[in-house]
Amino acid sequence: MTDNWNLLGHEWAVDMLRQHAARGDVRHAYLFCGPPGLGRRTLALRLAQALNCTQPLAPGIPCGGTCRDCKQIEAMQHPDLNIVEPTIIDPDDRKELIPALNGEIRIKQIRDLQKTIHLKPYQSIYRAIVFLRFQQASEESSNALLKTLEEAPAHAILLLTADNPEQLLPTIISRCEILRLRPLPISVIEADLIERGVDAERARLLAHISGGRPGYARRLVDDDTILEKREERLNDVQTLLSASRVEKFAYARKLSENKDVMRQTILIWLSYWRDVMLRVAQAGTPLTNVDLNMEIEFLAAHLDLSTTRHVVSNFESALEKMDRNVNSKLLAEVLLLDLPKP
Question: 129 is in which domain, residue-wise?
Answer without folding.
Answer: 11-180
